[in-house]
Design a protein that fits this description.
Blueprint: H1 3-18, H2 24-36, H3 42-48, H4 56-70, H5 77-94, H6 103-109, H7 111-114, H8 120-129, H9 143-150, H10 159-171
C-alpha cells in the first residue's frame, strides 16, 4: 500500500471521526483493512491488532500515532464534509441504494449539525432534505444536487477500505422511502 493511499484512507477516517461518524471499533476495522492491503507501518499494525469491541480510550493513542505517522491533521468542517461525501459517493457507486430517493443528500444532511453548520455543502443538503419527500420544492432544489454529489471524484480506494468509512452514514438511511407529503 503506497503512502498516498494510506494518507487518503486516514484523512477520510479522520474527517469522518471529526463529524462523529466513526466508532472506536471502526478505526480497528480500517487499520485491519489497511494491513490486509499491504500497510505494514508499526502504528497501523498496532491499531489493527486491538481487540474488538474497543473504546475511544483504547484507540485514542494508536489513532494519534497513525495520524502523526502520515501527517494527517483534523480537517476543517468543509474539507471533512467533502472527504466524507467522496467516500459515500464511492460506496454508493459500488452498492447503489434502491430503498430511498436522494441517499447522498440525506446522508450529507446529517453532517450539518455535526460540524456546527460550518459546511456549506452539509447546510445545502440539510436544507434540501427538508423538501425531498414533498411536492413543495423551492426553486433550485431538485435532482441536480443528488447528481452532483453522486458525481464527486472518486477517492480511488479499494471497496474494502471505503465500506467501513461509509457504514455509519449508510446505517442512517431509512429502510424504505419515507411517506410523500408533510
Amino acid at each position: 500500500m503506497e503512502r498516498a493511499e494510506k494518507r487518503t484512507v486516514v484523512a477520510v477516517a479522520r474527517a469522518a471521526d471529526s463529524l462523529g461518524m466513526i466508532r472506536a471499533g471502526d478505526w480497528v476495522e480500517i487499520a485491519t483493512q489497511m494491513v490486509g492491503h499491504g500497510a505494514d507501518d508499526g502504528p497501523i499494525v498496532d491499531l489493527a491488532i486491538l481487540s474488538k469491541p474497543t473504546s475511544r480510550w483504547s484507540t485514542e493513542l494508536p489513532v494519534a500515532a497513525v495520524c502523526e505517522l502520515l501527517d494527517i491533521a483534523e480537517p476543517a468542517p468543509e474539507e471533512a464534509t467533502l472527504l466524507v461525501a467522496r467516500a459515500l459517493a464511492d460506496d454508493l457507486r459500488a452498492r447503489p441504494e434502491p430503498a430511498v430517493a436522494a441517499p447522498m443528500v440525506r446522508m450529507i444532511a446529517r453532517l450539518a449539525a455535526a460540524c456546527d453548520y460550518d459546511s456549506a455543502l452539509a447546510n445545502e443538503c440539510s436544507y434540501a432534505e427538508e423538501f425531498l419527500d414533498c411536492d413543495c420544492l423551492p426553486k433550485g432544489i431538485g435532482p441536480g444536487l443528488e447528481l452532483r454529489l453522486e458525481g464527486l471524484p472518486t477517492l480511488g480506494l479499494p471497496d474494502a477500505l471505503v465500506r467501513p468509512l461509509a457504514s455509519t452514514a449508510r446505517a442512517s438511511l431509512a429502510a424504505s422511502q419515507p411517506h410523500h407529503g408533510h
